[in-house]
Design a protein that fits this description.
The chain has 266 residues and is an alpha/beta fold. It has helices at residues 27-36, 93-103, 123-144, 158-165, 184-188, 211-219, 236-251; strands spanning 5-7, 20-22, 43-47, 53-61, 65-72, 76-77, 81-87, 108-112, 151-152, 170-174, 198-203, 224-227, 260-261. Strand 7 (81-87), helix 2 (93-103) and strand 8 form a beta-alpha-beta unit.
Length: 266
C-alpha cells in the first residue's frame, strides 16, 4: 500500500537539526492530515522544497505533524519534461485533463485560448480557475506518488502560447485533421533518449484547432511537428491525456524505458 504523501513549499528536511521536527504543511495539507487522523508510528511520504523524497515516521499528530526521518526514498521523475498546452475546454473538463495528465507525468500546464474555445474566462475568474487547477495538480501528484507538483501557468492568449513555444526542444501538435501517417515517433525522433529534453504537447478545444492556428503553431518553433492520434475523433480531454501518455512512452517513460532520478536525488 502506498504511503500518504505531502509536499512542502518552504522546508528542506536535510536542514532540520533535531531528530524530530514539525512539518510546515500548507493549510490544505494540514487539514488533510487531520482528516487522515495520522497516528504515532505511522509512516508517510514527504517531498520537501528541494524536491527530495523521504519516508517519515509520525511522532505526534494534532495541531502540528511532528515526524522523524525513517529513510530517503528513491523517488523518480522522467528524464524529460512534458508541458501540456491545452486550449480551454468547457465546464470541468480542464480539471479532468489536469488530474489525469498529472498522473501520467505532465511537468507543467499552459492553458490557452484559441478561436474555437467556448470557455473564455478572464480576470478574476481566470485566476480562480488557475488556483483550482493548481490544487488539483497537487492532489493528483500526491495520489500518484510524484516527486514534483506540475506548475499551472496563467491562462494565455493564443499569441502568448505561441511566444512560449519557441523555448522547447520539440513541439507536438495533435490535430484531428493531420494525415494518419504523421506519427508521434517521427515528431520526437530528434529528442528520444536526450536527458532533460523539454517537450511541448499541444491539444485544441472541443471544436479543434483551425488550419491557420496549426500553421502558426508549427511556425513558432523549428522543431514543431503535427501528429495524429489515429483515425477516430477523440474528445479534447481524452486527446490530451492519451497524447501526453503516448509522448511519455515514446520518450522512455510509461514503462518504455528507465526513469531517471528526480533532481536532487541523483
Amino acid at each position: 500500500m502506498s504511503l500518504h504523501r505531502f509536499f512542502l513549499d518552504d522546508q528542506v528536511l536535510s536542514a532540520e537539526e533535531g531528530r524530530s521536527f514539525a512539518l510546515r504543511l500548507s493549510d490544505a495539507d494540514a487539514h488533510h492530515a487531520r482528516v487522515l487522523r495520522l497516528a504515532p508510528g505511522e509512516h508517510i511520504a514527504v517531498v520537501d522544497a528541494a524536491g527530495d523524497c523521504f519516508e517519515c515516521e509520525v511522532a505526534r499528530a494534532g495541531d502540528d505533524v511532528v515526524v522523524s526521518i525513517a529513510s530517503r526514498e528513491g523517488g523518480v521523475e522522467p528524464a524529460f519534461r512534458l508541458t501540456l498546452f491545452q486550449a480551454l475546454v468547457k465546464g470541468d473538463k480542464m480539471e479532468t485533463v489536469v488530474r489525469h495528465a498529472t498522473e501520467v507525468g505532465a511537468g507543467a500546464f499552459v492553458p490557452f485560448s484559441s478561436s474555437r474555445c467556448v470557455s473564455r474566462p478572464d480576470g478574476a475568474k481566470a485566476a480562480r480557475k488557475r488556483d483550482r487547477w493548481a490544487a488539483i495538480a497537487r492532489s493528483a501528484a500526491m495520489q500518484s506518488g510524484r516527486c514534483a507538483v506540475p506548475e499551472v501557468a496563467p491562462v494565455a492568449t493564443f499569441q502568448g502560447a505561441l511566444e512560449r513555444l519557441g523555448a522547447f526542444d520539440a513541439v507536438v501538435v495533435f490535430w484531428e485533421e493531420a494525415a494518419f501517417a504523421s506519427t508521434l515517433h517521427d515528431a520526437l525522433t530528434h529528442v528520444e533518449g536526450v536527458v532533460g529534453a523539454n517537450v511541448a504537447v499541444v491539444v485544441g478545444p472541443e471544436g479543434g484547432l483551425s488550419e491557420d492556428e496549426v500553421a502558426s503553431l508549427l511556425a513558432a518553433n523549428g522543431a514543431a511537428r503535427v501528429a495524429s492520434l489515429g483515425p477516430t475523433i477523440l474528445r479534447a480531454e481524452t486527446a490530451a491525456v492519451v497524447g501526453l501518455a503516448l509522448a511519455s512512452y515514446e520518450l522512455g517513460g510509461m514503462g518504455a524505458g528507465p526513469l531517471w532520478p528526480a533532481e536532487g536525488n541523483a
